[in-house]
Structure formats: C-alpha cells, structure tokens
Amino acid sequence: MIYGKTKGTDFEKLCDGAAKAEAQGVMVYYALARMAREQGYPEEVSTTFIEMANQEAVHAGFYATLMAKYDSDIWKIAENFAKGEYHGEQQVNQFAQALRAVGLDEAANEMDVFAKQERHHGDTLTELISKYKK
After folding, report:
1. What's residue 22's pLDDT?
2. Cα separations (Å) of 8 from 14, 67, 68, 129?
3. Which residues does the chain have with pLDDT short of 50?
4. CA 32 to chain centre
5. CA 122 to the chain's CA centroid
6. Which of 10, 34, 57, 118 has its CA 20 to 30 A from that of 107?
C-alpha cells in the first residue's frame, strides 16, 4: 500500500510536481495523437502518442496516491464525480451548440459524442456506487 506514504514529508512537493507534469503530459500526448491523424501521418504515430498518454495518466495517479492528494473514501469521490459527469453532459452539449452556431460542425459533432460519454461516466459511477458502496 502506497496511499499517503509521502504526505507531510520532503517528498510530497516532489510528488505534487510530478503528478502535475504527468497530467500535463496526458493532454499533450493526446493532442499530438489527434494532430498526427489530422496531418495524415501513419496510424502508428497516433497510436504511439495515445499509448504514451495512457502511461502518463497512470503515472499521475500513482503520484497523487502516494501523496494522498485525494480522500481515501473512493465512494465519496465517486458520488461527487457522478454529479459532475451528469452536469458535464449539459455543459458539453451547450458548448457543442455554440460551436455549431458558428459553423464548427465537425468539432460540435464530436462533442455530441463526448456529452454522451459524460452521461455514461455518470451512469457507470452510479452503478458502481450502488453495487459496491457499503
């Protein structure tokens, strides 16, 4: 178990910086993957960037756990995130409508998918909570 092992130690600040850097890396690598596809590079380029982004996400979660960045009550966090995911669906839909209104249909169409995914995340969290929270 690693949860909180660096909290309050000299390592906490290092873990915080590492978690933030890794989370930033996730965003950069996913953006690179998308741009590589849009620029017509072979699928290998995009796939490699996505694999790196996924690994960076794992790294960020590791450092966050090590320094106990989040409460250990996973169901409390999941309940809050479920609410946020449901709200996110509405926000993404509104954003998509605004983009569509200015002619950015391609982006809006993809965001329509994102909105459905946000809803799915909320539903999935709610199901997990119902099934496993004691």
Report:
1. 98
2. 11, 8, 10, 31
3. none
4. 16
5. 13
6. 57
